[in-house]
């Protein structure tokens, strides 16, 4: 290993399975997304002063030779506050939700990392491994063991929430179980699910014929990105939407390889662990954050998680610290509301000690 705006819409400035997968997953993703280092910041008093600057990415080598790139924001709080571990979703890189990460890092350590094969992380030297949710979960477990922390809070968004849950149930697998030698005090499940659901996911459609032009890719990406938000947000945040779109279509895609996105998509249709969630420790505090406008993973998926984790709590609407203005938000939760609101959600919930009442953290 080397080294407050509380409005409902935040205006941001600034002929078989293999054949099916090939036709409807790999090729569509490649058409839409294929084109024609960060350093731990100095944590300041305001979110705006926290900068992600180039250089100095940390890496850990996994047992199979793959590498994970990671950063620790707010590192001055290590040993003082429980680290907040961010597990990003399908297609995502560690810096995508930096608005929220920088806010949370004002008061505690925040670990962000890229899944293998994405961003600054790499596959094995052969590069031929099958990507599964369990593999990604074991990657996360290895990274946390290497860091040597005694306790952490997990925050998994979308696919990241699936990976986080999979990691938590590794000790209960009947085959190749793995022990977790640290304590998970809190679990934030954001826009995620615990079982495979038909009809959800990114709206990527197969388009036969030659590779798509830049404009065709732009229109396809526009539809996909819009689905992760909601019409009202897109209308109120046109400049930010165009910025996300431009980044997706014209650059940064070498760090989001189309084949890896496709493999992640396949992995999300093959996991199964919900029957093991009943074994999770009851003193682990669980918060579900899920917008009613989520078009990627419908809000109804929260019912499955509550069934399996009945002590889980839902984020509350309201104007008090630790609440959010409304549940009317889409899949990209971090693009909604002032970042300080999300900081307060994390801070207030993590004051709830693992055994129930408010604690020192």
Automatic annotation (TrEMBL):
It holds the Pfam family Abhydrolase_1. Residues 83-192 form the AB hydrolase-1 domain. InterPro entries: AB_hydrolase, AB_hydrolase_1, AB_hydrolase_fold. It comes from the Eukaryota. This is AB hydrolase-1 domain-containing protein. It comes from Leucocoprinus birnbaumii.
């Amino acid at each position: 290993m080397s080294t407050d705006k509380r409005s409902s819409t935040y205006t941001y400035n600034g002929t078989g399975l293999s054949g099916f997968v090939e036709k409807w997953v790999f090729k569509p993703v490649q058409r839409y997304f294929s084109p024609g280092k960060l350093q731990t910041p100095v944590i300041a008093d305001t979110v705006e002063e926290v900068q992600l600057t180039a250089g100095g990415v940390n890496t850990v080598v996994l047992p199979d030779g793959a590498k994970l790139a990671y950063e620790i924001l707010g590192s001055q709080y290590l040993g003082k506050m429980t680290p907040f571990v961010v597990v990003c979703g399908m297609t995502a890189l560690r810096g995508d939700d930096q608005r929220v990460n920088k806010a949370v890092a004002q008061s505690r350590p925040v670990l962000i990392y890229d899944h293998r094969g994405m961003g600054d992380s790499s596959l094995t030297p052969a590069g031929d491994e099958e990507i599964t949710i369990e593999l990604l979960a074991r990657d996360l477990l290895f990274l946390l063991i290497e860091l040597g922390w005694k306790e952490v809070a997990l925050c998994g968004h979308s696919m990241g929430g699936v990976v986080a849950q999979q990691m938590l149930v590794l000790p209960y697998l009947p085959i190749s179980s793995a022990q977790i030698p640290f304590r998970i005090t809190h679990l934030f499940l954001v826009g995620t699910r615990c079982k495979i659901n038909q009809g959800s996911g990114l709206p990527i459609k197969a388009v036969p014929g030659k590779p798509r032009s830049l404009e065709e890719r732009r229109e396809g990406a526009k539809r996909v990105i819009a689905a992760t938000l909601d019409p009202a947000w897109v209308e109120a945040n046109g400049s930010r939407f165009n910025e996300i779109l431009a980044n997706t279509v014209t650059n940064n895609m070498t760090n989001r390889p189309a084949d890896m996105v496709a493999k992640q998509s396949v992995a999300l249709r093959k996991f199964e662990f919900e029957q093991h969630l009943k074994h999770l420790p009851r003193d682990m505090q669980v918060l579900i954050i899920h917008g009613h406008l989520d078009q990627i993973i419908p809000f109804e998926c929260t019912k499955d998680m509550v069934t399996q984790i009945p002590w889980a709590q839902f984020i509350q609407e309201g104007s008090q610290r630790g609440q959010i203005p409304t549940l009317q938000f889409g899949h990209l939760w971090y693009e909604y509301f002032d970042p300080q609101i999300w900081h307060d959600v994390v801070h207030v919930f993590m004051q709830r000690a693992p055994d129930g009442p408010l604690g020192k953290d």
